[in-house]
Amino acid sequence: MATVDHGRPLPLWYTLPEGFRPVDLSADPDRRMEARYTALAELCPDATTGQLVASALAFEATLGRLVEDGLVHFSSFVLRTDDDLLLTGICQISVTDRPAGDPHLYPHSALRAHPDQPDTHKAVVELPSGLAAVVVADQAVTVPGTLFGVEGESTSAVRTATFNLAFPRIPQAVVVSLSTEIFEAREEFLELATVVAAGISFTAPTPDPAPKRAAVAASPFG
User: Fold this and answer.
1) Local confidence band at 93 (pLDDT 50, 70, 90 cut-offs)
2) CA-to-CA distance for 28 and 19, rounded, in angstroms?
3) By CB count within 10 A, which of 17, 146, 165, 173 is most buried?
4) d(CA 1, CA 202)
């Protein structure tokens, strides 16, 4: 079950496929920064201590702002496609307020509110949890140099797939967003994003029934 607003429970559950590495949003921030520092040190052995510290601090500050804005899940993912490409990116699940009213109408209003831009595709799709507005967009994202312990900024081309679904009984919506820089894996990325969005549920999962015990046959020896 997801939580937001200082641990208040929400009627929101989600499942993720293999290859996702979630960040524990309830963990102590210092421990989280230490873990990120260690992971970056292994990934970038040539980076200086100052660069690693700056990156860990910037990541934690960004994560804190996202949580304040309703973030309930953050993860990175790494999957290998059938064409032997490594599909990497990040996944975010957030909760936001929506206008009160019929939840079935919300996806249409969400699409109307999203500006029409080049390299943007919009649609309303049906998922197991209800209708969802989906926006797939290619955009340039500015990355502050402080994330890497350097001055200035850099620009990265990113493809995002964002799904907006309305909670059925409360005036809030869940936003599922996946992003990647691997443009070569377009079909695999869209399929993955759809699988994640389809894993959203507003009802608690039912526990698997206990397996039935096999009948014990009477011994022929008494």
Assistant:
1) very high
2) 24
3) 165
4) 9
Q: Tokens 């967009």 correspond to what residue? A: 137
Give the whole-number percent of the chain exceeding pLDDT 90. Answer: 48
The residue type found at 38 is T
Beta carbons of 130 and 12 less than 8 angstroms apart? no
CB contact at 8 A, 183 and 159: yes
Got the DSSP string for the chain? --EETTTEE-S-B----TTEEE--TTS-HHHHHHHHHHHHHHH-TTS-HHHHHHHHHHHHHHHHHHHHTTEEEEEEEEEE-TTS-EEEEEEEEEEEE--SS-TTTHHHHHHHHSPP-TTEEEEEEEETTEEEEEEEEEEEEEEEGGGGT-SSEEEEEEEEEEEEEE-SSSSEEEEEEEEES-GGGHHHHHHHHHHHHHT-BSSPPPPPPPPPPPPPPPPTT-
C-alpha distances (whole Å) from 105 to each of 96, 110, 161, 201 are 16, 9, 20, 18
- 107 Cβ contact partners less than 8 Å away, ≥ 6 residues apart: 124, 131, 132, 133, 164, 165, 166
The type of residue at 40 is: L
| Closest by CA position to 136, among listed 84, 191, 75, 94 | 191
Q: Structure pTM? A: 0.80
The amino acid that residue 78 corresponds to is: V
